[in-house]
Amino acid sequence: GKEVFLCWESDEDEVEFWHELDSGYSCREKLG
């Protein structure tokens, strides 16, 4: 595995996105 950041916005009910440690929010990808 690898370490990643989980990310979400305050209006989202669940954590559904992630991005690489060296990438920004604009590079987030859907989990799964």
Could you explain how this protein is built, in words?
The protein is mainly β and 32 residues long. The protein has one domain. It contains no helices and three strands. β2 (17-20) and β3 (29-30) form a beta hairpin.
Q: Segments where pLDDT lies below 50 for 5+ residues? A: none
Can you give the helix content as a percent range? under 10%
Spatial ordering of strands, largest sheet: 1-2-3
Number of domains: 1
Q: What's the rounded overall pLDDT mean? A: 96
Which range does the strand content fall in? 25-35%
| Series of H and E elements | EEE
Number of strands: 3
| N-end to C-end Cα span | 14 Å
**Biggest sheet overview:** 3 strands, antiparallel
Integer-rounded radius of gyration: 9 Å
If helices are DSSP runs of H or I spanning 4 or more residues, what is the number of helices? Answer: 0
Q: What is the overall silhouette? A: globular
Structural class, judged by helices and strands?
Answer: mainly beta
Characteristic key phrases:
32 residues; mainly beta; three-stranded antiparallel sheet; 0% helix
Question: How are the elements arranged and paired?
Answer:
Layout: E1 4-7, E2 17-20, E3 29-30
Antiparallel strand pairs: 1-2, 2-3
TL;DR of this structure?
The chain is mainly β. Helices cover 0% and strands 31% of the residues. The chain contains no helices and three strands.
